[in-house]
Amino acid sequence: MKSKWATKLAIWLGTIIFLTALAIIIWQTVSGGSQSTESLKWLQLLQTIGTFLLPPVLCAWIWDEHHTPFRWLGLRSSANWQTIVLATLAMVCAIPAINLLADLNSRVELPKSLEFIEQILKAQEEAAAELTERFLAADNLLTLLLNIGLLALLPALAEELSFRGTLQQIISPVSGPSQGTVSVRTHVAIWVTAFIFSAVHLQFYGFVPRMLMGAMFGYVFVWTGSLWVPMVMHFTNNGIAVLAYYLIGPEGQEKSWADTIGAGSTWWLGVISLIGVCCLLYWIRVRGLQGYARRIRKQ
Questions:
Q1: What is the Cα–Cα distance from 260 to 103, expressed in whole angstroms?
Q2: Is 180 found in the same domain as 49?
Q3: Are residues 29 and 98 in the same domain?
Q4: Helix or strand or coil: residue 3?
Q5: What is the pLDDT of residues 163-218, one digit of tens each?
């Protein structure tokens, strides 16, 4: 069992390395390494496909005995509309809580002996924020729709396939809606995946909220047995950010109200938001238990 787990992980990582390198080579060949916004968006597209989208599909096709990758990845199980609505509401409700956690995370200071590392991390954050603003800039509806596709929809599909659909399932497979209890191995799978999910974004000052969000996606996947639900949640989170930037814009401010609600003097909104999210997650879990009961009756 251990060797099977390690073999799958090695195949998945090898596929990622190969396809990511191929994506970068294609971009470099076609664009000549141009740093224009349009060129970098093409790089983003190719890397998302090569790093997160294709590897899980190809690997799942190999690993599934019937060569049906959708089944292995948890895409054959559909969620009812009530669960989808609850999941969407949970992400909308979570905005102040995410802002609160991000604000607390940003206040973390490393020891004086590690000051040079802190400077590097802050420089990375600033560079990432600048690139994100370049990507989000949209002066017409068509550009907005393209941004939603590139920065919200595609990452939601690809990253959930890669992390919850593949990595989490390599450690602890999800065969259907939870029967009410989650094994220790599944808890480990969820949190290890969430940690790596946050780490690969290379944004230290947003690490904690992103990790907790990843864990939330992992538990929802286990409770419902359908990868479509965390995909919807991931898309909702990304889509709100893209749409908010389009509607509000930078406004010459360091942060818009959409990024600060729930933080600072409005911390209490973050706390209320966190309580609301927990309540909605409870009902998603209940819906998952009902789905498991229906499955047993059919058998």
A1: 8
A2: no
A3: no
A4: helix
A5: 999 999 999 988 777 777 788 999 999 999 999 999 998 888 889 999 999 999 99
Dist. CA 43–CA 37, nearest whole Å = 10
Distance CA 100, CA 208 (A): 11
The H-or-E segment that residue 245 falls in is: helix 228-248
Do 153 and 49 belong together in one domain?
no
Question: Does residue 5 or residue 237 have the better pLDDT?
Answer: 237
Structure tokens at 9: 């992980």
Looking at the fold, whether 187 and 215 belong to one and the same domain comes out as: yes
State which of 73, 108, 131 marks the end of a domain.
73
CA distance 4 to 190: 19
Tell me the C-alpha distance between 156 and 197, whole Å: 12
Angstrom CA distances, 266 to 94, 103, 280, stand at 14, 11, 22
One domain for residues 64 and 119: no
Distance CA 171, CA 296 (A): 25
What sign results for the dihedral spanned by CA atoms 30, 149, 277, 106? positive
CB–CB of 229/167 below 8 Å?
no
User: Would you give the distance in Å from CA 245 to the centre of its chain?
Assistant: 19
Render 152-166 in DSSP notation, one character per residue. IIHHHHHHHHHIIII
Q: Is 298 exposed, middle or buried (0-12, 13-18, 19+ CB in 10 A)?
A: exposed
Nearest Cα residue to 216 out of 146, 271, 160: 160
Orientation angle between helical segments 207-224 and 95-106, nearest 10 degrees: 140
Domain identity same for 223 and 162 = yes
Q: Of 45, 73, 101, which residue sits at a domain end?
A: 73
- Domain holding 277, by residue range, is 78-298
